[in-house]
Amino acid sequence: MIPRHLVIGVAVMLVIVVAMGVYARRMRRQAREVEASAASALPVAPPASGPTETVTLYVADDASGTLRGRPAQIPLPSGRQQRAEELLRALLRVYQQPGAVHPLSAASDIRSIFLVNPGAAVIDLNAAFADEHRSGILSEQLTVNSLVETLAVNVPGIQRVRILVEGKTRDTLAGHADLSDWFDVATVEQAGN
């Protein structure tokens, strides 16, 4: 016969093993939830300061395959570069709203805009903008044209725009729209008409 204290000891050990398994499973689940929420967290840009101005955002419409000018009231700083960044961030907010006619990932963001020699601008997008963009010739080209036209119409003097991803040249946005060269504003505007 097995001594009673040995049976009790084995039963206690079994309960401890099961409890540890449940605890480990719960900890793994919490770690995954924390990881997922950290991955979806976006850096928060400081709110724009400055007088509120009426601007025109060129919003892509996937259903009709066109860009449509949409007036918007946004606060704009006085500096040209900061003004350009706020314009494109306002455009992205339109695309990131639920039910947008041209949806973009919530993680998409403008890292920076550089206004170089007179008439040229460089837009630096984050990796999520390109990596999570829907693939397709029309969708990608509408996004590019939307960025270029919104910038050119609201920041006087811009004639050429270059798009980078994480500060580097990229061949395409999501497999189709060519990002390897400068975009001529006049050509993009003609394509939109």
Describe the overall structure.
It is a single chain. By secondary structure, the protein is α+β, with helices and mostly antiparallel strands. The chain folds into two domains: 40 residues; 141 residues, no CATH class. The chain is 44% helix and 21% strand. It is built from five helices and six strands, in the order αββαββααββα. It has a four-stranded mixed β-sheet. It has a two-stranded antiparallel ribbon with strand order 1-2. Strand 3 and strand 4 form a beta hairpin. It starts with a helix and ends with a helix. The mean pLDDT is 81.
Layout of helices and strands, plus pairs?
Layout: H1 4-40, E1 52-61, E2 66-75, H2 80-95, E3 110-116, E4 120-125, H3 127-131, H4 137-154, E5 160-165, E6 183-184, H5 185-192
Parallel strand pairs: 4-5
Antiparallel strand pairs: 1-2, 3-4, 5-6
Helix pairs in contact: 2-4, 4-5
The total domain count is 2
Distance between the termini: 93 Å
Oligomer: single chain
Strands in their spatial order, largest beta sheet: 3-4-5-6
